[in-house]
Each structure stands twice: as C-alpha cells, then as structure tokens.
Specification:
Length: 124
C-alpha cells in the first residue's frame, strides 16, 4: 500500500524538526566561549541567536508550507531569558544539572511557557 502524501509531508516535517533541534544544540555548544549557557541558546549572543532564528524560520516555513501550525518557542523563552541577561538557564527555563549548568531540555517552567505558545498558536 502506498504511503499517503500527507503522511510523507508530516514525516518530513518531523525530521526537519529533529534536525533543527540538533543544530540549535550544536550551535550553542560550539559557542560556549561567547555563550556560557552550556549548549543551550543564549539570547545575549547575537551569532547564536541569529543561527537559532534562521533555523527556526526554516522549520516554520516547511511546517506552514505543508499545512502545519507553528508555535514560537524561541520567542516564548525570550522575555524571561532577557530578564536574566539572555540566559534561559539562569531564568529557570531549562533543566539544571548537578554542576549548576543546564542541559537543552525545558524545565517545568519552560514546559509551561512552551505549552502557552502552543495554546496561542492553535487558538485555544
């Protein structure tokens, strides 16, 4: 049985999303000397932020071109992060590690912000 085109588009969107997340993590990890956020996005580092915004725009473009809805998680973290020097780790938006740094995954507070962005995107 052939795979329906909509299923293929959804799979391509999912793959793109995974790649974007991996690339954002790599950009952040590669810029630790300028952005000491331990592999996560720094809103105070223009180069890291520009890379994340570019990847975000590519993902949003692919998603909307295929009928998807985009929730802006990058923007959701921006305000709270800027209150802590652009650092989402210091803002409590990422999971803290035992050494005081953070990994790239959202904390419960970060999850709530992302959920609110999703609710706004879908009009809930």
């Amino acid at each position: 049985m052939p795979v329906p085109p909509t299923a293929v588009r959804r799979m391509v969107g999912l793959i793109a999303a995974v790649l974007v997340v991996a690339l954002i993590a790599a950009i952040g990890a590669g810029a630790t000397s300028a952005a000491p956020v331990n592999g996560s996005l720094s809103y105070s580092n223009p180069a890291v932020l520009a890379g994340a915004q570019f990847l975000d725009s590519v993902l949003a473009g692919v998603t909307t071109a295929n009928g998807g809805i985009v929730a802006d998680g990058l923007d959701a973290f921006k305000g709270p992060s800027l209150s802590f020097g652009g650092d989402p780790c210091a803002a409590g938006l990422l999971i803290k590690l035992p050494d005081g740094t953070c990994n790239i995954h959202p904390s419960p507070t970060g999850h709530r912000l992302l959920a609110a962005a999703i609710a706004e995107a879908i009009g809930a």
